């Protein structure tokens, strides 16, 4: 019967049983099978022979395990904004070998205005960092190579968490051992005796003299002056951008500042009467910024040029007037000054403006401002009074035309109806671009703001 089979099958039947593992590799996985036997070949079930078990119908159950391999995913620098094409890689939140979840932060890119987070497009293991920290990166550049779908190694993590304790030293090792004599040291050495001079005319040795070239009081001088150290830190992108913009403003605009003084008594009383009700109904703390924003919006109706700007080549040849008011509110952060924008302030009441300012301030302190939060702006209010500033001249935020500076409230003696009274007073400073705004218009605008603040009821009517 065996002779009827073709020669290849005869050789196959004569092959010994294969006990070793057989690995079948594919693009996506490697399956390892142990104790494999071939499947039955139809038409050969009745073929007798000593190797029938090899070709028989009974197949030993397969015990297998699967080891997955995964394709790599390259994470690129995301699109940040229309006006931002590059940034500085501030730091990597994850390192090589660490596992990241989908949408988890991998790196932070510092731009001129905000910090941009780079998140993982899918879960996996960081395989390679393609750039270094503090490198300049551009939109679309490769940042990280991610092994998509990989899982953290639990065994290695557990091993790292539980380091082996050092073995306790044995009693014999604790006993001090006496030094064993060697061929080079036959016994305990004797202290060398001083050598005596045998020459009758030899002189006794002279004591060592101190080096006279070293200044005697150098150490005392350093101690008296104290530490005189210096350190140099590279400016971040936001600080560089702030410096560039402020210098550009000084070189472009014909800046001039006008001042006035406002009595805060009525506004403080107004706030005291309604702040608890507003907080209870809306959850918003009523402050002074909303009142000054509303006062500026109403004053712009009389002086619209304050909300305008100059555009065009060679310093500008066109005036753009706007029927909306986007107020930039200066907020100080650890990285620098940012100016998020309250959109369409002319349509808001005091509570609406206050809520918008509070939300933007929180986002700025939490470093969560977006490009959209700071884009645009037609007028800026800067409150240096919260830091104790008594007087200052703010710089225009181009291409805007004016900026209002608020300062600290101080009790001062003031003449009221022929009497001297102590009133809470604040200095106001309006810096404006004299190319567009004349002094008369600037003063009128600031006086209007003063009148609204000193009589807050007029803002409710306006």
UniProtKB/TrEMBL annotation:
It comes from the Eukaryota. The keyword Mitochondrion applies. Residues 72-147 form the Lipoyl-binding domain. Residues 154-165, 217-232 have a biased composition (Basic and acidic residues). InterPro entries: 2-oxoA_DH_lipoyl-BS (IPR003016), 2-oxoacid_dehydrogenase (IPR050537), 2-oxoacid_DH_actylTfrase (IPR001078), Biotin_lipoyl (IPR000089), CAT-like_dom_sf (IPR023213), Single_hybrid_motif (IPR011053), SucB (IPR006255). GO terms for cellular component: mitochondrion; oxoglutarate dehydrogenase complex. Its EC number is 2.3.1.61. Keywords: Acyltransferase, Lipoyl, Mitochondrion, Transferase, Transit peptide, Tricarboxylic acid cycle. The keyword Acyltransferase applies. It is found in: Mitochondrion. GO terms for molecular function: dihydrolipoyllysine-residue succinyltransferase activity. GO terms for biological process: L-lysine catabolic process to acetyl-CoA via saccharopine; tricarboxylic acid cycle. Belongs to the 2-oxoacid dehydrogenase family. This is dihydrolipoyllysine-residue succinyltransferase. It comes from Aspergillus puulaauensis. The gene is KGD2_1.
């Amino acid at each position: 019967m065996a002779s009827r089979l073709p020669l290849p099958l005869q050789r196959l039947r004569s092959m010994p049983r294969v006990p070793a593992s057989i690995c079948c590799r594919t693009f996506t996985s490697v399956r390892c099978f142990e104790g494999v036997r071939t499947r039955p070949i139809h038409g050969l079930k009745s073929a007798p022979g000593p190797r029938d078990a090899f070709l028989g119908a009974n197949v030993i159950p397969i015990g297998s395990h699967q080891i997955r391999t995964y394709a790599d995913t390259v994470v690129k620098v995301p699109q940040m904004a229309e006006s931002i094409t590059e940034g500085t890689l501030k730091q990597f939140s994850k390192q090589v070998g660490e596992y990241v979840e989908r949408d988890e932060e991998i790196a932070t890119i510092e731009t001129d205005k905000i910090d941009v987070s780079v998140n993982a497009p899918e879960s996996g293991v960081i395989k390679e960092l393609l750039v270094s920290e503090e490198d300049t990166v551009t939109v679309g550049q490769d940042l990280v190579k991610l092994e998509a779908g990989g899982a953290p190694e639990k065994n290695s993590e557990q091993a790292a968490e539980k380091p082996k304790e050092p073995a306790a030293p044995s009693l014999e090792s604790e006993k001090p051992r006496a030094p064993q004599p060697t061929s080079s040291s036959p016994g305990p050495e004797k202290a060398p005796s001083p050598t005596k001079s045998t020459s009758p005319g030899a002189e006794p040795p002279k004591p060592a003299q101190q080096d006279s070239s070293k200044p005697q009081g150098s150490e005392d001088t350093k101690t008296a002056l104290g530490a005189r150290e210096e350190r140099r830190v590279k400016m971040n992108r936001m600080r560089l951008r702030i410096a560039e913009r402020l210098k550009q403003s000084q070189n472009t605009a014909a800046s001039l500042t006008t001042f006035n003084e406002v009595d805060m008594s009525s506004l403080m009383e107004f706030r005291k009467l309604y702040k608890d009700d507003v907080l209870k109904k809306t959850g918003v703390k009523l402050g002074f910024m909303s009142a000054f924003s509303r006062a500026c919006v109403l004053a712009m109706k009389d002086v619209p040029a304050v909300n305008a700007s100059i555009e065009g080549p060679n310093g500008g040849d066109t005036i753009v007037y706007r029927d909306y008011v986007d107020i930039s509110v200066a907020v100080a952060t650890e990285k620098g000054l940012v100016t998020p924008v309250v959109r369409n302030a002319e349509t808001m009441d005091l509570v609406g403006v206050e809520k918008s300012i509070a939300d933007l301030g929180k986002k700025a302190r939490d470093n969560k401002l977006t490009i959209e939060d700071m884009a645009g702006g037609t007028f800026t209010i800067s409150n240096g009074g919260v830091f104790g500033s008594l007087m200052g001249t703010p710089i225009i935020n181009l291409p805007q035309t004016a900026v209002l500076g608020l300062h600290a409230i101080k009790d001062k003696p003031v003449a009221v109806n022929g009497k001297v009274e102590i009133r809470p007073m604040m200095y106001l400073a309006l810096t404006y671009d004299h190319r567009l705004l004349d002094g008369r218009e600037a003063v009128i605008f600031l006086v209007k703001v003063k009148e609204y603040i000193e009589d807050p009821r007029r803002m409710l009517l306006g």
